[in-house]
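Hi, here's the filled form for the chain we discussed.

Project: internal
Contact: R.S.
Residues: 159
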Amino acid sequence: MTGPDAAILAAIISGGVAFLAIVGSVTITGLNLRHQRKIEDERRQHERRMRLLDSGLKAAVDFLAAADRTTDARQAMDTAAISLQGAKSSSDQQTYDRFRLAWEEARDRSTAATRDAWDAYAALRLLVPAAARRARRYLDFCIKADAHEQQEEETPRQP
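And the returned structure, exactly as it came back:
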């Protein structure tokens, strides 16, 4: 084959090769874009999980701090109640009023701290449901804390 037929055949072959090259590059580009989108979606999901984990950890730290403040406030209120009880026998009304005022302030701080602890518990329960049960028990212990509880000393048994 010589002449115009060979030129047409060469043009057809060149066109076919060019077409295959275009199809190949489009396919590779499509696969690359799909892979990039998949990686980007995985990155976004990972970031979302990390933000959720960070929020959960922050909620846990906030909860522990609020529960500890509750314990401190509760113990301060118990101490103020003991002082108020002792002041009742005092003949000085001014002393009694001072201790009553101190007890009322301690009670208000205890109430506010307990409210804050319950709010922190609610956030923790939503963000870290697996920790909710233990957190509730800890909060109950903190609310019931009594620094002045009398403990009976056990005497060892003699045989």
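Let me know if anything looks off before we file it.
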